[in-house]
Design brief:
8 helices, 38% helix, seven-stranded mixed β-sheet, globular, single chain
């Protein structure tokens, strides 16, 4: 379904309140515990919800575990990618298969606390915002990782014209319509607020969230494999921000024709 390169997202109509989309690769040691936390948090809310797990070519027991979660509880669903495509493609697949009017994202390693989600969802639901982003109030990363993140955030903000405090934090909630038609590319997940703005949706807020240590396993990212690709992605997004347009039609004769056809 998904091959390397650019394509744009097309989402169907919503039938639930919230979809929590989680891309996972080799997170067998973490998914069951994380699923339990999500169930406890979301079941205590008034919203209808689902958790969409996207397996991005895992080589451990991640896929069998999320299959069992989906078989045991209809609130959990899974998407299996043919091979490893990367976090951005996995997120895009989760968005396509999701059914929520509001789409939330977190990582699958336990560093993002699901207990933060209701607060972000409530803010989005009660406001006129399009997206609620988050920043890690007290980062659990070491000094070198924190320094590199600050430099990367400053570089991206300078070139894209944004003021995102923590682009690397995956905890965010957005309205479904904000993602319709956005371009998907490797590294997209680091620029979702910018891409949503380029899509014509610019009302955003940024709130603090808890940052936890990874429960088990090893990180898929390091300073060396993020630096150069991050610079290239930022330059690409800078080009898009200057060249892409998102026209909104106020009215057309087609509207009257459609109304007549449905009478």
């Amino acid at each position: 379904m998904f091959e390397p390169g650019f394509f744009d997202l097309h989402l169907g109509p919503a039938s639930l309140d919230v979809s929590v989309v989680i891309p996972v690769k080799d997170e067998a040691a973490n998914v069951v515990r994380l699923a339990g936390e999500i169930e406890a948090v979301m079941s205590a809310t008034r919203w209808s919800w689902e958790c969409v797990w996207v397996d991005d070519g895992s080589s451990d027991e991640t896929l069998p575990l999320i299959r069992r979660l989906a078989a045991a509880d209809r609130n959990h669903r899974f998407v299996e990618l043919e091979r490893n495509y990367g976090q951005s493609a996995a997120l895009a697949a989760g968005f396509v298969y999701s059914r929520g009017a509001m789409l939330a994202t977190i990582d699958g390693d336990g560093q993002n606390d699901p207990a933060d989600l209701p607060r972000l969802i409530q803010l989005l639901a009660d406001s006129n915002l399009h997206l609620v982003n988050s920043y890690r109030e007290r980062s659990r990363f070491g000094p070198m990782r924190r320094l590199s993140s600050r430099i990367a955030n400053a570089f991206r903000n300078r070139l894209t014209g944004e003021h995102i405090r923590d682009i690397g934090c995956s905890t965010r909630v957005m309205r479904r319509e904000c993602l319709e038609g956005i371009l998907v590319f490797r590294g997209m997940h680091r620029f979702l607020p910018t891409l949503v703005r380029l899509n014509g949706y610019d009302r955003m807020a940024e709130v603090p969230v808890l940052h936890r240590s990874r429960w088990k396993g090893t990180s898929k990212y390091g300073i060396s494999n993020r630096l150069w690709v991050g610079i290239a992605d930022t330059l690409a997004v800078r080009w898009m921000s200057r060249r892409l347009t998102a026209p909104r039609v106020r009215q057309s004769s087609f509207d009257a024709q459609r109304e007549e056809a449905y009478r």
